[in-house]
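Hi R.,

Here's the chain you asked about this morning:
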Amino acid sequence: MNERVEVIMRTKDSDWVVDQALAGLFSQRYRDFELLVVDSGSKDRTLEMVRRHPHRLVEIEPRAYYPGPVLNMAIEQTTSAIVVFQNSDVVPLDPFALERLLAPFADPSVVATFARQLPRTEAHTWVRRDYAAAFPERGEPPAWMPYSLPFAAMRRSAWREHPFYGDAWGSEDSEWGTWARRNGHRVQYVADSLVMHSHNYTLRQLYGRRFIEGEADAYIFGDQDSLARAAWRTARAIGTDVGAHLRVGDWRGLLLSPARRAVYHFAYRKGHRHGEERIARGDRDASVGQAVVLKSNE
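And the predicted structure, written out as tokens:
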């Protein structure tokens, strides 16, 4: 590729990592880009750090932050044929990450790309295991990972065809990737575009994350969940956790696995049921998911 792209970065209270994320972006060999930052009410030093780099800034109120609609608003303020997304906590790991992310667009059949995410050095064992499954070193990612926005790119024309949804608060990337797959569009996983990104969620944060993912999946797939399925997923995940933790001698992680996986899967179940109920009554208010996420991060 040899054309200008625009990079959209969403920020809020990211001063613990945004300096690394921006340093990684501005050290890329591919230099023909402009940065658009959308900040939703940072109270820390995030914007001070952002000001060290060339950018345009859009500021919104925290309560106005709904991922899909905010992304659509941000893309409307760009003009490039290809738009890049970088989360404020994503750190490119070499100077070629952006170049490699963009290279597949030389094929006109490719409508979007996403990078391989490697966990942070402090990532817990279960996080490492999950990321290894989601973002393999070779081959294709699993079917449940159709697209991932932390470091990704998309043709404007494809976004015009299907803007990000706002029915539920989260999983806007999964919904978009599922739509692309259903409609025969090619989304390319770029395993050699390497970035660092992971979270050691507390149980409370994990609950919020999985609640919104469950709600979103009710909209994306139109299916129903059950307590029996949640219990089976929990038991199966604990079983695979045992092997992962034993291999590295992580006894504390192993002891925490039952509680963590119970929260992980039953929060998903509760969010999914909420989504099912919203769909049944035609409720278009996604604020419950937002409230759950905000409360979990307090």
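The two ends are 43 Å apart (CA to CA).

Let me know if you need anything else.
M.
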